[in-house]
Design a protein that fits this description.
The structure holds two protein chains of two kinds.
Chain A: E1 4-10, H1 14-23, E2 29-32, E3 47-49, H2 50-55, E4 65-69, E5 71-75, E6 81-85, E7 91-94, H3 96-109, E8 113-115, E9 118-125, E10 128-136, E11 139-150, H4 158-161, E12 173-182, E13 191-195, E14 205-212, E15 215-223, H5 230-239, H6 242-245, E16 248-258, E17 267-268, E18 271-273, H7 289-309, H8 316-324, H9 326-340, H10 345-354, H11 357-364, H12 369-373, H13 379-388
Parallel strand pairs in A: 1-2, 1-11, 2-8, 5-13, 11-18
Antiparallel strand pairs in A: 3-7, 4-7, 5-6, 9-10, 10-11, 12-15, 12-16, 13-14, 14-15, 17-18
Helix pairs in contact in A: 1-3, 1-7, 7-8, 8-9, 9-13
Chain B: E1 2-3, H1 11-15, E2 21-23, E3 27-29, H2 39-43
Antiparallel strand pairs in B: 1-3, 2-3
The chains are: A alpha/beta, B alpha+beta.
Chain lengths: ~400, ~55
């Protein structure tokens, strides 16, 4: 390891490793991750849409592709279903622990140096960020860098140390608990299953993402403001379904997902914030792998160009370009979340009657006009829409 | 205060308004900075945090 790099990335999740890969095309890059094993523990349901595989040319490697998803079934509180069906494959349930290592390996193949088991904090001189102080296997070291990328997750300390207020409102966080279960009965394991309802999962949902015909990630995300815990609601859900209850728990995952609002300040001086640390998550379903990779790519390219040209002012372009592309799309989806948060169980039951799978797909992508036209005859929902626009 | 058996998800750190929580192998709440707002208690997915009210 050297004493100085052009770019240091903190956190080797999808955002960090992707940023490192693209920055390494033009710059000397170090990636550190505090965990002893990159990708573990995961905080994820592990669903990844086909779009991400195509955009980033991710190979369908059996080592991290568990099972294809052919669509989704969304269950209203009264049990009625809305099915989202695709002609082909919609995406895959991946194995994050292997996938994240694959992305880190890709970064290293591009020339980045990756270091697990490494805690990092910002190194400043006269208020200016000049690098990081790392602790790798109990040894401390100061490493200088021209650019820092904070990809250290929902509880980002690096962005905080740079002076960016990263505190998240309770209402804007999804509190999540998940079991990977085996020996369970899954009705239609080719599909992912999402269960809605305020009694079942307040301001969130329960998911069953099959990794095999009899094995799945079964998880829940609820509002951070809820008095009862995510674990309480998930345990209750599983207990109420004998086909799940009889199964075995082979992994427990706990996480918090920033679903309610985005970090607005993505760049300060020579520091950029990406991924969960920047709350770049789809506010409707809480997925963030593809968003993190898109942000990582954009930030990584800007970092490489800034190093090449010697003009660090360019980093600000990451923020403006993000909010005029993917960030803009996420803003629209956030509006849909704010609408959805106000729905009662009866409203959801009604929506399951008038909306079809295509409507749900469009809405989760932020295109709501067609779906919303279908509910203007419902006085209460129309009222909610008035607040919306 | 230290929380044992913490899963390390970082939710409490993310919602703490005063930066009073650090996360290493287990959660540690630095009492001087803690204002007992209870947000960490609410957000913890496993319900491992209990703020004792001494007021």
């Amino acid at each position: 390891m050297k004493d100085e790099y052009d770019v240091i990335v903190i956190g080797a999740g999808p955002a960090g490793s992707t940023a490192a890969k693209f920055a390494a095309e033009k710059a000397d890059v170090l990636v550190v991750d505090k965990h002893r094993e990159i990708g573990s523990p995961k905080r994820c349901g592990e669903g990844l849409g086909l779009k991400a595989f195509e955009k980033f040319e991710i190979p369908l490697d059996k080592r991290f592709v568990n099972k294809e998803m052919c669509g989704a079934v969304v269950y209203a509180p009264n049990g009625s279903k809305v099915e989202i069906e695709y002609d082909g494959i919609y995406g895959y349930i991946i194995e994050r622990k292997i996938f994240d290592k694959f992305l880190a390996t890709e970064a290293s193949r591009q020339g980045a140096k990756v270091l697990a088991d490494t805690e990092a904090s910002l190194l400043k001189e006269n208020g200016r960020i000049i690098g990081v102080r790392i602790t790798h296997q109990r040894k401390e070291k100061e490493i200088k860098a021209k650019i820092i990328v904070a990809a250290d997750g929902v509880d980002s300390q690096i962005a905080r140390q740079a002076g960016i207020d990263t505190t998240i409102n309770l209402a804007d966080i999804g509190s999540c608990f998940e079991y990977e279960m085996s020996g369970i009965e899954i009705e239609n394991p080719e599909m992912i299953h999402m269960f809605m309802g305020n009694k079942l999962a307040p301001k969130g949902y329960v998911w069953i993402f099959p990794k095999d015909d009899d094995r799945a990630n079964i998880g829940i995300g609820i509002s951070g403001t809820e008095k009862r815990t995510a674990k309480y609601y998930l345990d209750r859900f599983i207990k109420s379904r004998p086909g799940l209850e009889k199964g075995s728990i082979i992994e427990v995952n706990v996480g918090c997902v920033p679903v309610g609002d985005f970090l607005r300040e993505l760049v300060r001086d020579n520091l950029m914030v990406v991924g969960d640390a920047a709350r770049q998550v789809n506010p409707i379903h809480g997925g963030g792998i593809c968003e993190a990779m898109l942000a990582g790519k954009l930030a990584g390219i800007k970092a490489g160009k800034a190093i090449n040209s010697g003009n660090l002012e360019m980093l600000k372009e990451y923020e403006t370009e993000w909010f005029s592309t993917e960030g803009k799309k996420l803003e629209k989806i956030l509006k849909v979340r704010h609408f959805a948060e106000k729905l009662g169980d009866e409203d959801m039951n009604y929506l399951a009657k008038v909306w079809n799978g295509d409507d749900l797909v469009r809405i989760s992508g932020g295109e709501y006009s067609i779906a919303f036209k279908k509910i203007i005859k419902h006085p209460r929902l129309l009222g909610l829409l008035k607040n919306f626009v | 205060m230290k929380i044992k058996n913490c899963y390390g998800c970082g939710g409490c750190v993310a919602v703490c308004p005063t930066g009073a929580i650090t996360l290493e192998s287990e959660v540690e709440i630095i009492t001087e900075k803690c204002i007992k707002c209870g947000k960490c208690e609410l957000v913890c997915p496993a319900g491992l945090i209990t703020i004792e009210n001494e007021r």
